[in-house]
Write a structure and sequence with these properties.
The protein is of the alpha/beta class and about 270 residues long. It is built from ten helices and eight strands. It is globular, with a radius of gyration of 17 Å. Bound molecules: S-adenosylmethionine. One of its GO terms (molecular function) is methyltransferase activity.
């Protein structure tokens, strides 16, 4: 785990092996990806109806969720775990548009996220990037850019957006549980995940992910809710991402295939 200055190329960068962050960047129409990522993304797009739409829906709910946390819930510190490569409307942009003093720490396992993130954020004193593995919460918490920067005696917005489904349920549950315990009352947990509501495309996406990116799991809505523990879900609970406090009308009875790949929820730690 590092918070080093920008170095290129990062020592553990392998151009020939796709990564989650870079393949997701392809789905979002980004440019921070290599041939191997594009080949995998095209294969997945060809097999999963609505995959790109689902990635875009995930970004949209991230924006709505962060806006809710910063504006309505008054959260001014965010820890974004599995943050991905910088793209449009990053967490810090949304949070700091609501509150310029909001602090944001990005954590991701992909070394390219560290390189791009630090270059992008060099002039933003309220935002930090850490390269680390969310399966090691103690190591992440020990980072100066995390515990020396965010105040865990005050409420934090903890985000696992579009990343929990890369962890086996038990591991994810243990990791999220550790973070739930570490948070002060008034904190929020914001999660989105690939969901399993019985549609074949959901398990197919999990299979493609697992076979090509080492890990991939589709969670039932009940399993996603279980990750929230005794935190209190805010309305509308755990729902398809397009239905989580949409900006405009959405026909819940006629969701597109892409709108049925992921679910989102936000919950409050009351005590
Ligand atoms: N949170 C962003 C979003 O929702 O738009 C990015 C989601 S992207 C699909 C998942 C991210 O999780 C990738 O950037 C990947 O590198 C990261 N990731 C996967 N496993 C991880 C782990 N064990 N530790 C840290 N990051 C991880």
């Amino acid at each position: 785990m590092t918070d080093d200055p920008v170095r290129w190329p990062p020592p553990d960068l392998d151009f020939n092996k796709p990564t989650i962050a870079r393949a997701y960047d392809v789905l979002l129409g980004g440019k921070d990806n290599f041939e191997a990522d594009r080949v995998l993304a095209q294969y997945a797009i060809a097999n999963i109806p609505g995959l790109q739409e689902s990635a875009l829906e995930n970004r949209k709910v991230l924006v709505r969720g962060v806006r809710f946390l910063a504006e309505e819930a008054g959260i001014d510190q965010f820890l974004d775990l599995g943050s991905g490569l910088p793209t449009q409307e990053n967490t810090h942009e949304v949070a700091q548009a609501c509150n310029p003093d909001a602090k944001v720490v990005y954590v991701d396992i992909d070394p390219l996220v560290g390189v791009h993130g630090r270059a992008l954020l060099a002039n933003n004193a309220n935002t930090k990037v850490v390269v680390g593995d969310v399966r090691e919460p103690d190591a992440i918490m020990a980072e100066d850019a995390v515990s020396g920067f965010l105040d865990f005696d005050r409420p934090v917005g903890l985000m696992f957006v579009g990343m929990l489904h890369y962890l086996d349920f038990e591991i994810a549950h243990g990791v999220v549980g550790k973070w739930r315990d570490a948070l002060a009352p008034g904190s929020y947990l914001f999660m989105t995940s690939l969901v399993d509501t019985g549609l074949p495309a959901q398990q197919e996406l999990a299979r493609i992910t697992k076979e090509n990116l080492e890990e991939g799991y589709a969670r039932t809505p009940e399993q996603i809710e279980e990750h929230f523990g005794d935190f209190e879900l805010v309305e509308p609970g755990v729902v398809y991402t397009a239905l989580w406090r949409p900006d405009g009308p959405v026909d819940a009875e006629n969701l597109s295939p892409g709108e049925q790949l992921g679910m989102a929820g936000i919950a409050l730690k009351k005590r």
